[in-house]
Amino acid sequence: MTRDMTIEGLLDDYRAGRRTVREVVAQAMMEIRREDPRNVWIAALDDAGLEPYLARLEALDPATLPLYGVPFAIKDNIDLAGLPTTAGCPEYAYVPQQSAFVVQRLIDAGAVPLGKTNLDQFATGLVGARSPYGACGNAFDPEYVSGGSSAGSAVAVALGQVSFSLGTDTAGSGRVPAGFNNLIGLKPTRGLLSASGVVPACRTLDTVSIFALDAADASRVLEIVAEHDPEDPYARFDQVPQLGLAGIPEGGFRFGVPAPGQLEFFGDRDYASLFDAAVEHLRGLGGEPVEIDFAPFLAAARLLYEGPWVAERYAAIRGFFDARPEALFDVTRGIIGGGREPRAVDAFEAQYRLQALRRQAEAAWDAVDLVLTPTAGTIPTIAQVQAEPVRVNSNLGHYTNFMNLLDLCAVAVPSGLRADGLPFGVTLFAPAFRDRELLPIADRLQRAAGLPLGATGRPQHDRPPLATDGRHYIPVAVCGAHMSGLPLNHQLTDRHARLIQATRTAPEYRFYALPGGPPERPGLVRVDSGGASIDVEVWAVPADRFGSFVAGIPSPLGIGRVRLEDGSAVPGFLCEPVAIAGATDITDLASWRHYLASRG
Asked: Residue 244 has what pLDDT?
């Protein structure tokens, strides 16, 4: 493919009149409807089914909708009104009267659904080969697996047939296919995206996922679909993260790497060396690698299929399974059928075990801001999967199965190519609700790898890097006893605040040593003239802990807007002017530390 199928590229062309929606969709449908040797699609819309979407858009200005005319694909366990949902099992099929919540959000934003894509039956598998519609072939080499279960969703994007797609991710189904097809694969925080209109695999663990050519496109789609759905009992409002430090900085971040003995590449030397290169790429972006104990994560991963959570897969289709067990693939029937065995006591014991592992895994967030792993340890051929379906599939979940059990968010990122040209990807993950902080780092890491987009051969766009919105923390400028190593700094560190930068104010302030104490405190007062630049530290305070921090600030100090030497303004400590009567003017020292040193 030579045409630009990124969302930004399409929108630019529509607004400039270089392409029309009908032209883009017609070209995409021509490719979809021709012979499909990779078995990407289960069902595509016909011309009559597409017409309402196209006619609606022709009456609108391209600038009025955020996804105007952007074609997308839908994994066939997610409802699109009027088109059968099969979940990879023709005997199970039904025709929904309304689209899934997330699909409708995208349509309302101007996106055009083209059809339903292939998957491992009932989303049970990471290979993309467990489907009566045929094994889905990799976008780079159809002899190799596409990854699953969101197989066709990934390949359709990688081939440039659509701009983005929806998958689901319970055990890695939105990340493994991304890694194997050179894509961004966003596994959002569980519950952040609605699951209404989605055939469940494990209802308490499932999440809709997003495949895109780059992180900017994934971010754009996330902003559309991350809307709270009151009809989904497992939906969660976006919220301040409860684990880890305050925000993931775009530079100076610390990233965890599993200890060498805890990495597994199943004999794939190319993948091993490509992971080492990814670590260096992330270091080059300002990250500091920190070795972590990966054992609790791996132990949690084993619970997904060795514990009672497999009973959720049985519960999801219990009536159909009991009535039509012969309709399922042998391997799928064996896995889901195992869900009839666990007892209630097994479920409770597994929950206790998982909670203990969560506590052990949480220790990592005291040392790092995010973790980097391979997305998968190797990539098998379809023939290898067919020869050993359970073992090979299990290998692919080594770095993915724990993610939803431990309530983490993750982004799979293209990172390199093996000597034979097959993609290698890595995954960045962090505590729940840090999705929007991971994406800018994923964007920079993808740029550092320098790979083309998907399998299209098109280079990455030279656009400004994706920026974090910092919605989960509040920067605070401190100039006295709250600075690093001074008596009140613990009021910040106890709240998991972190130092962003040491800098100076704009030359607009007078600085005073206030009477009283201990501890001694300074007063920073903004003046119209005669001001100076004063040393400050800017700390990031978790938004949910900012209120308790401010509540403890005694008069005459308070929080206002402090202008920094670079012209920006952040919340920070200021002093009421009335309080400088009786205070010592220390403006000439320009630093609280210098003042303390001057007093011996």
From this structure: 53
> Is residue 116 among the annotated active site residues?
no
Q: How high is the pLDDT of residue 308?
A: 86
Residue of 75, 150, 196, 415 marked catalytic? 75
187 is catalytic: no
The pTM for the full model equals 0.85
Strands of 365-418 (E only): list them: 370-374, 408-417
Q: Which of 241-245, 492-496, 585-589 has the highest mean pLDDT?
A: 585-589
Give the per-residue pLDDT at 251.
Answer: 66
- Residue written as token pair 């006619």: 55
In this predicted structure, the answer to whether residue 286 has a pLDDT above a threshold of 70 is yes
> What's the pLDDT score for residue 30?
96
pLDDT at residue 543 tops 90: no
Which of 537, 539, 543 has the alpha carbon at shortest distance from 524?
537
Average pLDDT over residues 309-313: 90
Does 173 participate in catalysis according to the annotation?
yes
* C-alpha distances out from residue 593 to 520, 570, 600, Å: 12, 21, 11
Is the CB of residue 357 less than 8 Å from the CB of residue 296?
Answer: yes
Query: Which domains does the chain show, CATH number per domain?
Result: 7-230+248-449 (3.90.1300.10), 473-598 (3.10.490.10)
Residue 267 zone, left/alpha/beta (φ > 0; ψ -120 to 50; rest): left
Structure token pair of residue 488? 């009140």
Angle between helices 344-362 and 295-306 (to 10 degrees): 160
- Give the amino acid at 430: A
Burial 416-437 (b: 16+ CB within 10 A, else e): bbbeeebbbbbbbbbbbbbbbb
The dihedral through the CA atoms of 469, 472, 476, 481 has a sign that is negative
Yes or no: say if 69 and 24 are a contact pair by the CB < 8 Å rule.
yes
**Active-site choice (99, 131, 146, 149):** 149
Quickly tell me which residue has 């880890």 as its tokens: 244
Which candidate in 173, 194, 209, 591 is catalytic? 173
Nearest CA to 165 among 112, 122, 124? 112
Asked if 42 and 153 touch (Cβ cutoff 8 Å), the reply is: no
Beta strands 473-478 and 522-526, pairing class: unpaired
CA 37 from chain centre, in angstroms, equals: 31
pLDDT tens column, 430-484: 999 999 999 999 999 999 999 999 999 999 988 888 876 666 778 899 999 999 9
Strands 370-374, 254-258: pairing kind: parallel
- Strand ranges across the sheet with 535-542: 498-504, 535-542, 473-478, 569-575, 557-563
